[in-house]
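2024-03-11 09:14:02 INFO queue: dequeued item Cysteine desulfurase IscS, len=374
2024-03-11 09:14:02 INFO validating residues
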Amino acid sequence: MIYLDYAATTPLDPEVRAAMEGVLEEYGNPSSIHQLGRRARSLLEEGRERLARALGCKPRELVLTSGGSEADALALYGVALARGRGHLVSTAVEHSAVLQTLKNLERLGFEVTLLWPDRQGLIYPEQVAEALRPETILVSVMTVNNELGTLYPVRQIAEVCRARGVLLHTDAVQALGTVPCQVETLGADLISLAAHKFYGPKGVGALYVRKGVELFPIIPGKQEQGYRGGTENLPAVYGQGLAAEKAVARLAEESRRLLALRGRLEARLLALPGVVLNGHPTLRSPKHVNVTVQEADGEGLLLNLDLLGVAVSSGSACSSGSLEPSHVLLAIGRSKEEAKASVRFSLGRYTTEAEVDQAAQVFAEAVGRSRVYI
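2024-03-11 09:14:37 INFO prediction written
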């Protein structure tokens, strides 16, 4: 099987796995004051410090979570509930973890404005500036779109928000190890991360919280400075720190390699009749290629790719056994039929030129099998 679904999740780095296996022997509770607890606390803080160095922030500015979705929820609920009322601004192409949280906040009486992208998936700082109100408390714009790979001008949006005294959250789950996402580079007040997107373990993530930002905890407890209760997942936190350190260290080299592979794959895909690119041609993550196959049966296309040995994702999400069109692709102007007949290829650390070439050949065959002829 050729794995080209790195945007969904990444394999666990072997060095990270080995380090985690060693930490599994440490069964002490990091909150305990005896020797076993102190040893566990030391390893926990080592993992946090490594992640902090990768992000260029202070360890105390990181709240450890169960993943990116919880980090998003803590950022949005945390700011909103700490303020009690107000207006939030986000985009129509955010991850469902953000969009669903915003819907829930609307039910609690908060006002939400969603910004719509252009046909290439871009959101502009000017749109954010126009949407801000005196009562706006938070803007949430992702760093890299998880479906299209579109890169958003987070730094410029941060400047707009800072000038108006509004907090900025960015979901950077797709960013670390793929594009620069240090705290000073992004300029955001809150940054969400998930370890399994950068060759770390599943079930762990983090929220960067700039000093001075007030959050209401959604899981009460004494851990994580009171922002997130519950005994920490020590092996996962340790693995996350090491994975982040490694991903950032090889960022420049890996980005160049992925960009070359992306260009190679993209050229072969777009040479096929009726295959068109989704997203921006250049302002895009080096690992993402999302295409729509015109006049194709979307479900058949995905099934054929799987049967032919290529693991990818569609521009759709399976819900209750039915194929639902991607809200991201609908937002950039694709029809429901086009959205269902879309495929996201995402490259990663172990992708080779041979795999890219073979995947392109398989895709051509799958497209031929899936064409709808009337």
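2024-03-11 09:14:37 INFO annotate: The first strand starts at residue 2 and ends at 3.
2024-03-11 09:14:38 INFO item closed
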